[in-house]
Structure formats: C-alpha cells, structure tokens
Amino acid sequence: MRLSGIRAGVIGVGFIGVAHVEALRRLGVDVVGVVGSTPDRARSKAEAADLPAVYDSVESLAADSDIDVVHVASPNHAHADQVRLLLSAGKHVVCEKPLALTSEDTADLLARARTAGVVNAVCFNLRFYPNCHQAMALVEAGDIGEPRFGTGSYLQDWLLLDTDWTWRLVPDEAGQLRAVADIGSHWLDLAQFISGASITEVMADLHTFVSPRRHPAGPVETFATSSGDEELVEEPMSSDDAASIMVRFDDGARGLVAVSQVSAGRKNSVSIEVDGSSAALSWFSENPDHLWIGHRLRPNEILQRDPSLASPDATRIIGYPGGHVEGYPDTFRALFKEVYEDIARGGPSEDPTYPTFADGHDVVLITEAIARSSQEERWITVQR
Description:
Blueprint: E1 7-11, H1 15-26, E2 30-35, H2 39-49, E3 53-54, H3 58-62, E4 69-72, H4 79-88, E5 92-95, H5 103-116, E6 120-122, H6 130-140, E7 147-155, H7 171-174, H8 179-195, E8 199-207, E9 213-216, E10 232-235, E11 242-249, E12 254-260, E13 269-276, E14 280-284, E15 290-294, E16 301-304, H9 312-317, H10 328-345, H11 357-376, E17 380-381
Parallel strand pairs: 1-2, 1-4, 2-3, 4-5, 5-6, 7-12
Antiparallel strand pairs: 7-13, 8-11, 8-17, 9-10, 11-12, 13-14, 14-15, 15-16
Helix pairs in contact: 1-10, 4-5, 5-11, 6-8, 8-11
C-alpha cells in the first residue's frame, strides 16, 4: 500500500520527535513540518537534524489543511490539550505515551477520537520488535500452555547522578509518576500484549533515591550529560527513581516487574519472561533477535528472528532477512507502517493491529493504581 501521498506533521523536536521523523521518512511519508517549544529552538533543531519546515505554533500546524496526520512528541503535560486541538481539526493522531497525565483526560481523548472517526495510536513501540509479536503468537497458540507467571524489568541509568537532569523530572511537565510512567508503562503494555490478559490488581513500592538534584537553570535535552561548566540549581525530588511492582492478571496469572532509571550500566534494558504450564519464553531487548523458549523435559530453544520461520503476525512486521538485526529505530517504522495503512484506507480498522488511544487509556488506569498502591501500601484494583 502506497503511503507516500500522506502528509504528516510532528510536534516536538527532541530525541523522540526526531525518531518519529526518521521512521516516517523510511516509509516514504511526506513530513511537511515540525513544531518545537519555541520557533527559534525548532529552527535550530531542524537545521541540525535535517528536519522539515518549522511551524510557529501547534495551532498553525493544526490549521494546515494539507496535513493529514500529526505526531505528538511533546512533553507529557501538553499531550491532552494538543490532541484535543488536533482531533477538533479532523487530524489523525499518533501520540507518545502517556496519552495524558490523568485517566479523566485519556477517557475524554478516547471518546473524542471515536466520535471523530480518525485513526488514533499511542506509541508503545516495544511491541514492534518482531520477537515480541512472535512471543504473543506462541502464547495465543497455546505453545507454552496456560500462562502462570510473568517477570521482567525495564532498567536505565541516565538519571543515576545528582547532576542528571531532564524535564521528565519536573512533575508539572511530566506528571507525578516518572520511571513508572516513562518506561514502566512500556513493560505493562508489553506484558498485556504478549500474555493476552489484562492487569487487574497491583501492589507497588515506589522510591526516590536521588534527592536533591542539581541542574542548569535552562532547558536540558533528554539523555544529555552535564558539561560541568554550568551554574547549577539545587532542587528536591519527589518522583520515582525506581519501583517494584507485583501484578495480578484477569486469567489468574501473577507477575512481578522492576523499573529503574538509576541502574548503572543499563542504558535501555527491557526483559520479559512468561512462564506457562508446559513451557516458558523470555525476550531481552539487548539481544532482540533471539527469543528463548524453556522446557522441562527436553532441551531449551533459541528462536532467531527469521521471516521464513516466524508466525504470520511476526512476519508481517519484519523488515529484514534473518541474521540482519532489527533494533529500536525499526520498531517505530513497523508501528507507523501499521498505523499509516489504516490512514491510507481512510480510517481506523475494526480491529487495529497497533496500540490505540484505548490502550493508552488502559495503561494510565494501571499506572494510577500503581501510584495509589505505593501511597497506601496495599493491593489496588485497576478501575476500568
């Protein structure tokens, strides 16, 4: 299906915004323009990263009738109002997670998107590592028996030092949850996607290890490291550096996940294992083309990503032959390809093959339950 006739805009020119532009260009999508936090910053970033033309505001981008779809890759606090504006302008929308900071807002955005009849997606891109689709297919086919226990982690180290800084540390911009909302949300979505079950109850312990932090007075790019030459401002912290979370699924399975942005040496490390009644499977993002399959009475297996051996679900999103490793940037290409095929058809399909606003709303409900569980030190039911 030809996607080259679709015209896109991107809100946000940081790390993720640039990743969106690059993935869209690989698909042949015409990226018309971008919006940054200020026109001057956007123009500077556009020149440095070879981005397309710069719009002076989100309003001017939304008003451009030539744009069919807009990607929202701005700071978290801006998502809800920007998505509402785009939906009212009739745009298809791809939004970075979280869809919004509260479930009240995510429920409203979901209802508005359904009323507008536009394609809507949330960027849970980790699903689109091919072996995550393969794992889902194996569970769905009953190849591991009845899922019983899911374990895993999402670990990073880019906020380990007290001089590490980003807007994600500011609750007014990122929300009260940080590690859980920023990266834990990916694991929660992935666990539900692979298992086919819904998380219904949570028990969480969230903790802030690094407080106070010292940071430059001006804005700091995500994943940037302090040069040591700036005058630093000291600020107390309240958002979570790390979390231990137990979960219960609606099919009776149990789970446990560790989330941290202060784990030295772990740059962007995701692991997930699903133990079933007859076999187990495990996937690790630092070796993404291998899926481990464990057995009790015969040798374990390593399934290498290969379109000639994979399930139809996995084969559909594989971009390269076996032995040619697919990584993080490829997950955006694979996700956007699924989304843009619906856009090319004129609207959302009845059963989308990508995460939608419904998935974004669901994960916010789970993270709200996690925050409440840590505060009240007890099991909390997800309020669907």
